[in-house]
Amino acid sequence: MNVRIWKWIGFVALVISMACVISYAEKGDAKSITPPAAVKDAALAALPQGIIEKTTVEEKEFKIYAVILKQDGQESEIKITSDGTVLGMETKVGKENIPDAVAKSLSKAAQGAEMKGVEKKVTYLIIKPVKLDVPETTYESDIIKDGNACEIKLAADGTVLEKSAWRKAEGKDGGKEGDDEEKDEQKVTIDQVPPAVKATILSQTGKGIIKQIEQETKDGKTIYGAETSIDGKKVEIKVSSDGKLLDKQIGDKGADENDDDDGEDNDD
Predict the structure, then answer these.
(1) Which segments within the chain are labelled E, that is strand?
(2) Three-class secondary structure assignment of 96-160
(3) What is the model's pLDDT at position 62?
(4) What is the pLDDT of residue 22?
(5) Domains of the chain, with CATH numbers?
(6) Which residues fall within 8 angstroms of residue 168, CB to CB, at 6 or more apart?
Protein backbone atom coordinates (compact mmCIF):
# COMPACT_ATOMS: atom_id res chain seq x y z
CA MET A 1 0.00 0.00 0.00
CA ASN A 2 1.56 3.33 -1.04
CA VAL A 3 2.27 6.35 1.11
CA ARG A 4 -0.79 8.31 -0.05
CA ILE A 5 -3.16 5.49 0.89
CA TRP A 6 -1.66 5.24 4.38
CA LYS A 7 -2.04 8.97 4.79
CA TRP A 8 -5.65 8.74 3.62
CA ILE A 9 -6.29 5.97 6.14
CA GLY A 10 -4.94 8.09 8.96
CA PHE A 11 -7.23 10.99 8.18
CA VAL A 12 -10.28 8.77 7.76
CA ALA A 13 -9.63 7.32 11.22
CA LEU A 14 -9.44 10.82 12.67
CA VAL A 15 -12.72 11.82 11.02
CA ILE A 16 -14.51 8.71 12.28
CA SER A 17 -13.25 9.19 15.84
CA MET A 18 -14.42 12.81 15.93
CA ALA A 19 -17.83 12.16 14.43
CA CYS A 20 -19.47 11.03 17.67
CA VAL A 21 -18.65 14.27 19.52
CA ILE A 22 -19.75 16.76 16.87
CA SER A 23 -23.38 17.80 17.21
CA TYR A 24 -25.74 18.55 14.34
CA ALA A 25 -26.15 22.09 15.64
CA GLU A 26 -22.45 22.79 15.23
CA LYS A 27 -22.69 21.86 11.57
CA GLY A 28 -25.71 24.03 10.91
CA ASP A 29 -23.63 26.94 9.66
CA ALA A 30 -21.63 24.92 7.14
CA LYS A 31 -22.43 25.67 3.52
CA SER A 32 -24.52 23.04 1.76
CA ILE A 33 -23.33 21.82 -1.63
CA THR A 34 -24.68 19.56 -4.36
CA PRO A 35 -23.29 16.08 -3.61
CA PRO A 36 -21.26 14.30 -6.31
CA ALA A 37 -23.20 11.54 -8.06
CA ALA A 38 -21.29 8.73 -6.29
CA VAL A 39 -21.93 10.32 -2.89
CA LYS A 40 -25.63 10.87 -3.61
CA ASP A 41 -26.08 7.30 -4.86
CA ALA A 42 -24.35 5.85 -1.78
CA ALA A 43 -26.48 7.94 0.59
CA LEU A 44 -29.73 6.91 -1.07
CA ALA A 45 -28.60 3.28 -1.17
CA ALA A 46 -28.12 3.42 2.60
CA LEU A 47 -31.53 5.08 3.11
CA PRO A 48 -33.61 4.34 -0.02
CA GLN A 49 -36.62 6.35 1.17
CA GLY A 50 -34.52 9.19 2.54
CA ILE A 51 -34.59 12.80 1.37
CA ILE A 52 -31.24 14.59 1.22
CA GLU A 53 -31.49 17.87 3.12
CA LYS A 54 -27.88 18.98 3.26
CA THR A 55 -24.43 17.95 2.10
CA THR A 56 -21.19 19.44 3.40
CA VAL A 57 -17.49 18.72 2.95
CA GLU A 58 -16.38 17.02 6.16
CA GLU A 59 -12.70 16.69 5.26
CA LYS A 60 -11.46 18.76 2.32
CA GLU A 61 -8.17 17.12 1.39
CA PHE A 62 -9.54 13.61 1.08
CA LYS A 63 -13.02 14.71 0.02
CA ILE A 64 -15.12 13.13 2.73
CA TYR A 65 -18.72 14.30 2.67
CA ALA A 66 -21.35 14.52 5.40
CA VAL A 67 -24.84 13.94 4.01
CA ILE A 68 -27.88 14.66 6.17
CA LEU A 69 -31.08 12.85 5.21
CA LYS A 70 -34.54 12.44 6.68
CA GLN A 71 -36.48 9.20 6.48
CA ASP A 72 -39.66 8.35 8.37
CA GLY A 73 -39.22 11.45 10.50
CA GLN A 74 -35.71 10.49 11.61
CA GLU A 75 -32.60 12.50 10.76
CA SER A 76 -29.42 10.67 9.81
CA GLU A 77 -25.94 11.83 8.90
CA ILE A 78 -23.81 9.60 6.68
CA LYS A 79 -20.06 10.03 6.15
CA ILE A 80 -19.14 9.12 2.56
CA THR A 81 -15.91 9.35 0.53
CA SER A 82 -15.90 10.87 -2.95
CA ASP A 83 -15.95 7.41 -4.56
CA GLY A 84 -19.11 6.43 -2.68
CA THR A 85 -17.62 4.43 0.21
CA VAL A 86 -19.83 4.73 3.30
CA LEU A 87 -17.72 5.22 6.42
CA GLY A 88 -20.42 5.50 9.04
CA MET A 89 -23.92 6.69 9.85
CA GLU A 90 -25.47 8.47 12.83
CA THR A 91 -29.23 8.60 13.37
CA LYS A 92 -31.26 10.45 15.96
CA VAL A 93 -33.71 7.92 17.39
CA GLY A 94 -36.50 8.05 19.93
CA LYS A 95 -36.29 6.09 23.15
CA GLU A 96 -39.02 3.82 21.83
CA ASN A 97 -36.79 2.78 18.93
CA ILE A 98 -33.80 1.51 20.90
CA PRO A 99 -33.35 -2.14 21.98
CA ASP A 100 -34.70 -3.07 25.41
CA ALA A 101 -31.25 -3.99 26.66
CA VAL A 102 -29.89 -0.59 25.65
CA ALA A 103 -32.87 1.21 27.18
CA LYS A 104 -32.44 -0.58 30.51
CA SER A 105 -28.71 0.17 30.65
CA LEU A 106 -29.26 3.82 29.76
CA SER A 107 -31.92 4.18 32.42
CA LYS A 108 -29.66 2.59 35.01
CA ALA A 109 -26.69 4.73 34.04
CA ALA A 110 -28.78 7.92 34.01
CA GLN A 111 -29.84 7.31 37.65
CA GLY A 112 -33.03 9.31 37.22
CA ALA A 113 -31.50 12.11 35.14
CA GLU A 114 -33.33 13.24 32.01
CA MET A 115 -31.98 11.89 28.71
CA LYS A 116 -32.17 14.62 26.08
CA GLY A 117 -31.78 12.35 23.09
CA VAL A 118 -30.28 9.17 21.72
CA GLU A 119 -28.10 8.74 18.66
CA LYS A 120 -27.56 5.43 16.95
CA LYS A 121 -24.15 5.14 15.34
CA VAL A 122 -23.26 2.48 12.79
CA THR A 123 -19.60 2.25 11.74
CA TYR A 124 -18.78 0.40 8.54
CA LEU A 125 -15.07 1.05 8.39
CA ILE A 126 -12.54 1.03 11.24
CA ILE A 127 -9.05 2.15 10.29
CA LYS A 128 -6.05 2.87 12.47
CA PRO A 129 -3.45 5.54 11.63
CA VAL A 130 -0.02 4.28 10.58
CA LYS A 131 3.19 6.28 10.81
CA LEU A 132 4.81 6.89 7.42
CA ASP A 133 8.31 5.52 6.89
CA VAL A 134 9.10 8.50 4.67
CA PRO A 135 7.33 11.86 5.21
CA GLU A 136 5.37 13.06 2.19
CA THR A 137 5.75 16.69 1.17
CA THR A 138 3.18 18.30 -1.12
CA TYR A 139 2.21 21.83 -2.12
CA GLU A 140 -1.34 23.11 -2.64
CA SER A 141 -2.64 26.33 -4.12
CA ASP A 142 -5.97 27.93 -5.04
CA ILE A 143 -5.90 29.45 -8.54
CA ILE A 144 -8.23 32.32 -9.44
CA LYS A 145 -8.96 33.42 -13.02
CA ASP A 146 -11.82 35.51 -14.41
CA GLY A 147 -14.07 34.78 -11.47
CA ASN A 148 -13.38 31.05 -11.46
CA ALA A 149 -11.23 29.03 -9.09
CA CYS A 150 -9.58 25.63 -8.95
CA GLU A 151 -7.30 23.81 -6.54
CA ILE A 152 -4.01 22.24 -7.51
CA LYS A 153 -1.79 19.87 -5.55
CA LEU A 154 1.84 19.17 -6.48
CA ALA A 155 4.61 16.87 -5.32
CA ALA A 156 7.93 18.30 -4.15
CA ASP A 157 9.43 17.58 -7.60
CA GLY A 158 6.73 19.63 -9.32
CA THR A 159 4.55 16.74 -10.46
CA VAL A 160 0.86 17.66 -10.54
CA LEU A 161 -0.90 15.18 -8.25
CA GLU A 162 -4.41 16.61 -8.35
CA LYS A 163 -6.22 19.45 -10.07
CA SER A 164 -9.88 20.13 -9.39
CA ALA A 165 -12.42 21.25 -11.96
CA TRP A 166 -12.87 25.00 -12.37
CA ARG A 167 -15.75 26.42 -10.32
CA LYS A 168 -17.14 29.85 -9.65
CA ALA A 169 -15.03 31.63 -7.06
CA GLU A 170 -16.90 32.32 -3.84
CA GLY A 171 -15.88 34.84 -1.22
CA LYS A 172 -12.48 36.28 -0.43
CA ASP A 173 -9.55 34.26 -1.79
CA GLY A 174 -11.97 32.30 -3.99
CA GLY A 175 -13.72 29.38 -2.39
CA LYS A 176 -13.85 30.53 1.23
CA GLU A 177 -17.26 30.98 2.77
CA GLY A 178 -18.65 34.04 4.48
CA ASP A 179 -18.80 36.68 1.74
CA ASP A 180 -22.40 37.09 0.59
CA GLU A 181 -21.42 39.26 -2.37
CA GLU A 182 -19.16 36.55 -3.81
CA LYS A 183 -16.36 39.07 -4.06
CA ASP A 184 -12.72 38.13 -4.36
CA GLU A 185 -9.84 40.54 -3.81
CA GLN A 186 -6.13 39.85 -3.81
CA LYS A 187 -2.93 41.75 -4.42
CA VAL A 188 -0.95 40.78 -7.52
CA THR A 189 2.22 41.97 -9.27
CA ILE A 190 2.43 43.46 -12.75
CA ASP A 191 3.80 40.17 -14.05
CA GLN A 192 0.82 38.22 -12.68
CA VAL A 193 -1.87 40.11 -14.57
CA PRO A 194 -3.00 39.17 -18.13
CA PRO A 195 -0.82 40.62 -20.94
CA ALA A 196 -3.56 43.00 -22.12
CA VAL A 197 -4.00 44.35 -18.59
CA LYS A 198 -0.26 44.72 -18.13
CA ALA A 199 0.04 46.67 -21.39
CA THR A 200 -2.74 49.10 -20.39
CA ILE A 201 -1.37 49.70 -16.89
CA LEU A 202 2.17 50.31 -18.17
CA SER A 203 0.84 52.58 -20.93
CA GLN A 204 -1.18 54.67 -18.46
CA THR A 205 1.61 54.79 -15.89
CA GLY A 206 4.38 55.73 -18.30
CA LYS A 207 7.50 56.74 -16.34
CA GLY A 208 5.61 56.64 -13.05
CA ILE A 209 5.75 54.10 -10.23
CA ILE A 210 3.27 51.29 -9.69
CA LYS A 211 2.56 51.20 -5.95
CA GLN A 212 0.32 48.14 -5.95
CA ILE A 213 -2.18 46.22 -8.06
CA GLU A 214 -5.33 44.60 -6.71
CA GLN A 215 -7.35 41.97 -8.56
CA GLU A 216 -11.05 42.08 -7.72
CA THR A 217 -13.65 39.56 -8.84
CA LYS A 218 -17.34 40.20 -8.32
CA ASP A 219 -20.32 38.52 -9.96
CA GLY A 220 -17.99 36.64 -12.29
CA LYS A 221 -16.21 39.76 -13.59
CA THR A 222 -12.55 40.50 -12.86
CA ILE A 223 -11.19 44.04 -12.59
CA TYR A 224 -7.63 45.16 -11.89
CA GLY A 225 -7.04 48.31 -9.87
CA ALA A 226 -3.56 49.84 -9.96
CA GLU A 227 -2.42 52.49 -7.51
CA THR A 228 0.39 54.50 -9.09
CA SER A 229 2.45 57.62 -8.60
CA ILE A 230 2.92 59.81 -11.68
CA ASP A 231 4.81 63.10 -11.47
CA GLY A 232 4.20 63.21 -7.74
CA LYS A 233 0.46 62.64 -8.10
CA LYS A 234 -1.47 59.63 -6.86
CA VAL A 235 -3.22 58.02 -9.82
CA GLU A 236 -5.67 55.13 -9.57
CA ILE A 237 -6.34 53.07 -12.67
CA LYS A 238 -9.03 50.45 -13.20
CA VAL A 239 -8.72 47.97 -16.07
CA SER A 240 -10.99 45.13 -17.20
CA SER A 241 -9.61 41.62 -17.73
CA ASP A 242 -9.41 42.23 -21.50
CA GLY A 243 -7.24 45.33 -21.03
CA LYS A 244 -9.92 48.01 -21.43
CA LEU A 245 -9.36 51.17 -19.36
CA LEU A 246 -12.44 51.55 -17.14
CA ASP A 247 -11.45 54.46 -14.94
CA LYS A 248 -8.52 56.75 -14.16
CA GLN A 249 -8.54 59.07 -11.17
CA ILE A 250 -5.77 61.60 -10.60
CA GLY A 251 -5.23 63.05 -7.14
CA ASP A 252 -3.60 66.30 -6.11
CA LYS A 253 0.12 66.68 -6.54
CA GLY A 254 1.99 65.66 -3.41
CA ALA A 255 -0.94 63.59 -2.16
CA ASP A 256 1.22 60.50 -1.98
CA GLU A 257 4.42 62.04 -0.65
CA ASN A 258 4.08 60.03 2.56
CA ASP A 259 3.55 56.75 0.73
CA ASP A 260 6.33 54.19 0.64
CA ASP A 261 8.27 54.36 -2.61
CA ASP A 262 8.78 50.61 -2.85
CA GLY A 263 6.62 50.16 -5.95
CA GLU A 264 7.71 49.20 -9.43
CA ASP A 265 9.58 51.89 -11.34
CA ASN A 266 8.73 51.90 -15.05
CA ASP A 267 11.74 53.79 -16.39
CA ASP A 268 12.36 50.94 -18.81
Answers:
(1) 51-59, 64-71, 74-81, 86-93, 118-123, 138-145, 148-155, 160-163, 167-168, 183-188, 209-218, 221-230, 233-240, 245-253, 264-265
(2) HHCCHHHHHHHHHHHCCCCCCCEEEEEECCCCCCCCCCCCCCEEEEEEEECCEEEEEEEECCCCE
(3) 66
(4) 43
(5) 3-123 (3.10.450), 139-265 (3.10.450)
(6) 147, 148, 149, 182, 220
